[in-house]
Fold:
Amino acid sequence: MTKVEAFGSVGDLLAALIAIPSVNPEGDPGTGAENCGEGRLAEFVGDLLLGLGAEVRFDEIEPDRPNVVASFPGGEGKPAVLLGPHLDTVGANIDLSWVIAESPAQTPELPHPDDLAGEHITALTLVTWRAGVKHVQHLATCHPHGYWLHWR
Structure:
């Protein structure tokens, strides 16, 4: 059983998760049966949740693509919480886009435009991933409490 305490930091845990191949769909460049499917990652996550005291079961929706269902014993009158993350990742040839609204000074690990590095502002940033190439574009600067938004 894998214990959370076995990892020195959240970064160590994330590195262990990322190191487990889980690319879908099969057929993308660089993917094959050896690194597709969520099976190994589901086992790791399930084992980790068992170590935290959860009751765990696996629902195999498709071959080697199980869902991990875990529940923790609760107390009477306490609300239930559902977490629904994805276990799989997409191949390198898939186009992705996402928007970040964070302070570059407080989140240097996130992709921010170079001209905003270390700034104590809230930046609205568009990140795109096309054909394996990342592009970062500063869209706007925001007041930290949302009072105003200055588009670039």
Remarks:
- The chain has two helices and six strands.
- The mean pLDDT is 77.
